[in-house]
Design brief:
The protein is α/β, with parallel strands linked by helices. It has 9 helices and 13 strands. Helix 1 packs parallel to helix 2, helix 1 crosses helix 7 and helix 8 packs across helix 9.
């Protein structure tokens, strides 16, 4: 089984339940606030670890990051490559509506203080053919992509949060580009446009309740979403990607990887919070078994 290294963000999530997203000039009363461990990097690592993968996390936290490291360890991830820095841990302020939609404001904090030495140490834990997960919430992505490609890693990159600078990264080094519809449109357009813009990459386009489409380089696969009632979609995409990466690390066929990831995401959206909503593997397998029987 291949190893997974995730060089990614570690956040404290402050989640507010609101009747609708705040608009310009509006003061809105929230009905509750919860504090969760989060960050796209942490969520994806937790998902991969709970799926049963051999996963390492690298990143940075401040003095207030113990909760995040404890959660990663409890999930089964190796955190020996996480650095302590003299900067507050990154955090997010998340609005969640009664329909389960979310709007997120992020402060990078320690996530923007990942050193080149720390990255080099983390890359020493994996070898050619292993998987690197990356998102756009840490610094130094250009150098990380180039070093990972030199080592022969399979790079899965999710450019979220999307910004113009992503287009300047060496995306031709990726194994797989993972985007939602908004991110895909900002980069190039729909699936056809993405395939034309990145002809040598696999492309995974996620569309929430409308499923996911994967271009493998030789075939186009579609995985419909499982019909469930969403309570909180905060970590749905991260859960999907972590489980997808875990399935690839096991050598699973792409279609099986997509189905497993979709099932995990369907369970996650029925729970509150980011990392706490991510299911363990046996829950996902049981969900799939029930789906086959129905």
């Amino acid at each position: 089984m291949a190893k997974i290294l995730n060089i990614g963000s570690l956040n404290l999530d402050y989640v507010y339940a609101v009747p609708h997203f705040v608009t310009a000039g509006e003061t809105l009363l929230a009905s509750r606030r919860d504090v969760f461990a989060g960050g796209k990097g942490l969520n994806q690592t937790v998902a991969a670890a709970r799926a049963g993968a051999d996963v390492y996390h690298s990143g940075a936290v401040g003095a207030d990051g113990d909760m995040l490291l404890d959660l990663l360890r409890d999930a089964g991830a190796d955190v020996s490559a996480v650095s302590r820095v003299d900067v507050p841990t990154g955090h997010a302020v998340i609005q969640v509506t009664p329909q389960g939609e979310n709007a997120i404001l992020i402060l990078g904090g320690a996530n923007r203080s990942v050193s080149a030495d720390a990255v080099e140490g983390a890359l020493g834990k994996v070898a050619a053919g292993d998987i690197l997960l990356l998102q756009n919430e840490i610094n130094g992505l250009d150098a990380i992509l180039r070093r990972a490609a030199e080592k022969g890693l399979r790079i899965l990159f999710n450019p979220a949060p999307m910004e113009a600078a992503v287009k300047e990264l060496p995306l031709h080094l990726l194994d797989t580009l993972i985007v939602n519809e908004g991110e895909g449109k900002a980069l190039a357009g729909d699936m056809d446009a993405l395939r034309a813009a990145y002809p040598r990459q696999k492309i995974l386009l996620t569309r929430g309740s409308r499923g996911a489409t994967l271009w493998t380089g030789s075939e186009l696969l579609f995985q419909p979403a499982f019909p469930v009632k969403a309570l909180d979609t905060t970590a749905a995409g991260d859960c999907f990607l972590g489980y997808y990466a875990a399935a690839l690390s096991e050598g699973q066929p792409y279609a099986r990887a997509l189905r497993l990831a979709s099932a995990a995401s369907a369970l996650a959206v029925q729970r509150r919070g980011a990392a706490p909503s991510i299911p363990i593997r046996r829950e996902v397998e049981a969900f799939l078994a029930r789906t086959r029987e129905s």
